[in-house]
Amino acid sequence: MILQPYDMEVGAGTFHPATTLRALGPKPWRAAYVQPSRRPKDGRYGENPNRLQHYYQFQVILKPNPPDLQKLYLASLAQIGIDMGIHDVRFVEDDWESPTLGAWGLGWECWCDGMEVSQFTYFQQVAGFECAPVAGELTYGLERLAMYVQGVENVYDLNFNGLEGADRISYGDVFLQAEQEYSRHNFEHADTGMLFKQFEMAESACHSYLAAGQAGDKHLMALPAYDQCIKASHVFNLLDARGVISVTERQGYILRVRELAKACGTAYLQTRDGGR
Amino acid sequence: MPDLLLELFSEEIPARMQGKAAEDLRKGITDGLVAAGLTYDSAKAFATPRRLALVVGGLPLSSPDQREEKKGPRVGAPDAAIQGFLKSAGLTSIDQATIQSDGKKGEVYIALINRPGRATVDILSELIPNVIRSFPWPKSMRWGSASVSSSSLRWVRPLTSILCTFGPETEATEIVPLDVDGIVSGNITYGHRFMAPQPIMVSRYEDYVDKLLKAKVVLDAERRKAIILAEARTLCTAQNLEFIDDEGLAQEVAGLVEWPVVLMGRFDEAFLTIPGEVIRATIRANQKCFVVRQPDTGALANRFMLTANIEASDHGAAIIGGNERVVRARLSDARHFWQTDLGALPDAGDYAQEAAALGLDLAKSLDQRMGKLAHLNVVFHQKLGTQGERVQRIVALARQLAPLVGADPDLAARAASLAKADLTSEMVGEFPELQGLIGRRYAELQGEHPSVCAAIEDHYKPLGPGDRVPSDPVAITVALADKLDTLVGFWAIDEKPTGSKDPYALRRAALGVIRLVVENGIHLRLTDAVPRFGEDLLSFFYDRLKVQLRDSGARHDLVDAVLGAGGASDDLLLIVRRVEALAAFLKSDDGTNLLAGYKRAANILKAEEKKDGTTFDGVVDEALIAARGAPEEQALAAAIAVARQAVSDKITAGNYAGAPTALAALRPAVDAFFEKILVNDPDPAIRASRLNLLARFRAATLPVADFGLIAG
Predict the structure, then answer these.
(1) Predicted model pTM
(2) Domain DALR anticodon binding, which positions (chain B) (predicted)?
């Protein structure tokens, strides 16, 4: 099933409820979608050829993971033009962990000629709950892969519309200004007073929606509560980029987001889609 | 004799786990075989990224018959005891047991249990699944539809097939039937993922190794490593370059490929302005590639060696191109960090207060980084304050220690104030393992004194027993100040190492202090020189000193003997020198005999003091000895007086190490005394005088060592 991106600011495709929440509970689930992702700290004012504070992930989630997931993944690379007869594709250990989501899994970063082009993870735990069954997650870095396929050194030189000459539009034409502006915003000007308040507001809204949605052993409002968890997570990332959270406080904020994620997971397991 | 071949085929096993996993497989299976009463000639295990394999040679077809007598309860014991016995012995009725007489208990039941040997194949069918289910992976996972149950099979990554054959060398083998959570054993394996993915039928080990090799899989990791190193050297030699050996990396790369193909890549020479250590760190850690140097200058060359897992149809052109692109991006990043670190920080103006406290010159980039570290209020430890406060303490301590070490106090303070500055550099943020070295490079570029630069890099040293000990006085001073501040701090908040727990590496820090003072010949009175250095911390140092001496093959048991003698007990170098001198003395004839004489005297005194209920204090009746003493007695009294003076002179002169030899002069007199004199003379006055003479001898040795604490 092909889904659309989630319409909120997230750090990675994993945050989409179609992955985080659907990985919970016993019901089978197979979905794929593109997810624009924001990592405020990775901004480089448009000056680094590889790092972006806003980029695209293609996310695949298969629950339970099919036995031939590695083969399917390799076939997907072949499909976009990577010839395994001349390229060196490798599965290199990379255990994935998201402290804010209370999630971890085992898998690899997938290398093509020494470049990491995807993440491959077997989810073992999400929102503090053991995955039963385990879901397989594939995350493709779209800019990286496009650079590979197009043979481009600098992300801003990617051909964005496939046309040439006067009609050609590059990745830079579309995103360079945004990278510059958001880097200024993320590192220098984001309103920290407002962000601290927003964090508190999202946190308390999450708790109150969770309380309001509880109906006996059922839960009726897990998804709206989870939105607030996503919100808190992104606000935290912005505060972190602004450098206003000390090392000791940092751990405290991560734990608070994780508590929200866990509470949302608990609620989702009592919903129709998340339950038995 | 038949052989067993087992292969556990899975998705990619992390390189760092492969070696231990192969060994765990060998141990798990062979221990199980032995426990089942089977013998074997040989066992060897292998690992590649996708398989663990084991061959066990020379197994019998079945285990031997066993006969066991099991003793039960006495006749007439309560029914519960009888029933328990029947159950454990596998009997259905007590009539099946025989009755024997047992001396203490009377008549008891005995079950004669005959255990017929079992077919080896049956034993294997039971054993192997158990070994797989309880395999000690450091991290394992569940997968697939079976993972609905949280008790489903766990493996390091999904386990996909099992090959298991058993049979004699010359005849057909059979498949050992196994069923591990639905994975059924067979005689099929698979070759290289891309070059030979088709199934391969295998009968036995030799066949397995040959067929895998044809299918582009080198089974033995050592062999793969040797191929990588040999190919890399050959390629380098052909280009008149020198390959830089890196055993650890070769090991890791051998765990990333089944069919190693070494290729050479290049990068722009302009990147060689970045320090070589940084180039190596980024190429090594991120790309698992080797670096190469110019044979004449030893400088890094703009090449790197990569290990691919396939023989590409374009001879590696695309693979080299792709790797070069990644290396270029990585080095661009590194150069960016390098240049950023050399530039000014935008907020440097805010660090004036921190700069004043630490004596920093905010016009310089490394000083700004230290200002930033202090300004950020990064916590070092909750109860020990921030990094900035810690650096202030180290600066003060370094200034205090400098004259004792023979270093310039200003240079030591300057080095201490910059030693941690690189922690806020972009470069160390990216390559934490380069801390210290990066600070040194930046210090050199901003024109710091060479000793300051060396101290910034070396103040973390020595990091372990094999690590280099700094020798520049400024570096020694800062290294000592850093470690002593840590130790004194954690002692003050009562966070000491316990058992195997030493989260702040305090044992390593203490060992570092010991090596710094001993190997550089520095006399440092720790309790005087270091504020808040208490008795408890000192005894921790004694323990580490004993461990250190034991590990270096010296006589650690002499530490207590030397400490028991008094003298400066917080000068570690002095303690070591005294231990060495004492050890040398005890190895000599004089020393051995003197020790024997001491023990004899001490034993006599102990016995007689116990008998008399008194202590002989060594107050000798000189007049009595002069008037009625035997010549040997008089000679000993005189010799003791001479030796006491000699020892005292040495010690007054600070020559503790020379003191034991001063005792050597006592030996003939002591030997003669024990040969000729009967201590327990019938005359109580003479007896007391002689015992006091022995007590005086005992006391005379004490400034050198407490000989009573010396073993042997």
Answers:
(1) 0.77
(2) 596-697
